[in-house]
Amino acid sequence: MADVVVVGVDGSPASSAALRFAAEEARLRGAVLRVLRAWAVPVGAYAPVPYPAELYAEVAPQTERLLRSQVAEVLGEDPGIPVDARVVEGPPAKVLVDEAGGATLLVVGSRGHGGFTGLLLGSTSAQVVHHAPCPVVVVPAGRPG
């Protein structure tokens, strides 16, 4: 089985920096780059918010389009490495930790679209650092690419 470098993206500048870093690591290691974008329908504070079925049905395809767009924008049409881009339903940290089983490396940005802007680490990157089954690299938000 080939080595795999896993990276989580969410469309944020920090995740684009993480994607560039992960692609270079995959290139250096001769590994497959697995790019993941998680999605989950938000729930209310005390009870699930009812969403119309047609809205729910559009989330995954829209997320897939956003993922493909970010990968093409950051890596170009021919990144020169095998890229396995996937949209997975579930909370981002859980998706990344689950998908990193057997991976050589897991890469995330320091902060994505959620949370508080003053934090050095976002909630997803903090959870991944503590629970990942492989080495983790957290790419700083301001890293040039």
TrEMBL record:
<comment type="similarity">
    <text>Belongs to the universal stress protein A family.</text>
</comment>
<feature type="domain" description="UspA">
    <location>
        <begin position="1"/>
        <end position="140"/>
    </location>
</feature>
<dbReference type="InterPro" id="IPR006016">
    <property type="entry name" value="UspA"/>
</dbReference>
<dbReference type="Pfam" id="PF00582">
    <property type="entry name" value="Usp"/>
</dbReference>
<dbReference type="InterPro" id="IPR014729">
    <property type="entry name" value="Rossmann-like_a/b/a_fold"/>
</dbReference>
<dbReference type="InterPro" id="IPR006015">
    <property type="entry name" value="Universal_stress_UspA"/>
</dbReference>
<protein>
    <submittedName>
        <fullName>Universal stress protein</fullName>
    </submittedName>
</protein>
